[in-house]
Amino acid sequence: MRFFVPCLVLTLLLAANAAKAADPQTTVSIVGMDPPSPALLHSNDDVYVHLHYTSDAPIKIWARPFSAGTAAGAISSSSPVYPAGEGDAFGWFSCSKACSVDSIHVQIAVANSGYPFHEDSTSVGFGWDGAPGQRHTPAAWVKPMQDAVAAQEKQTYDAYMAQPLGKSGVMALILFDAVVLGALFVCVVWPVYGLTRWQGKWRWLASAPLALFILKTFGISTDLAHDPTSHNLLPFEYFIIGAIAAPYMILIWLLRRRALRRDTD
What we know:
By secondary structure, the protein is of the alpha+beta class. The protein is 48% helix and 26% strand. A five-stranded mixed beta sheet has the order 2-9-8-4-5, with no helix packed on it. It has a four-stranded antiparallel beta sheet with strand order 1-3-7-6, with helices on one face.
């Protein structure tokens, strides 16, 4: 027993050192912002961030907007996988309503992990008045970096789609399609049936998931028009709506059935 505690401590230290060693050696710095800070912007106007990095392993880099130490009420860009070596990275963030950003947190994660292992912050002063207005003209470096990120994401997507599925992949795809179709059924088909065939309050209760589906679709369309990469997990978003709508529709169906039986007794 007296050797157990020292062995446990040694094991934990070795595990911590191994985990630390697994993190790549990286440096990331902000070399440009457009518009420069400070700036007051209109609704949905973007702030672009130009970063430079070095890393001995593939990584992801995000430029996250913060306000008063917490994530600001803004949307921000996703990150492609940046190859090992030295290069440039790109990010953006924006607000559709009145908000402020007082710092940019640059987060770094090992490729495909999704969990930042390093984070640095830089003080800035960006504000959005929430009013519609003309967006600022982007700096000359913005468009080439947007095109480079889009090309990299397309290359990654094409490489992924070119991989053979195999039997397990085919079965998973069939199951996934069935789940998505089921979600669409409880979000659209069943509510439309209730709206057109049921009477009284039941038809309006049945229409609630359909209204949620329409509002969600409108929001997604707006986001995709602003950033085509903003909903990379789009089917899962509808699956979540379906998971909410399914028990709701079952409950409404049971309550309506019970009410109809009571009325006929």
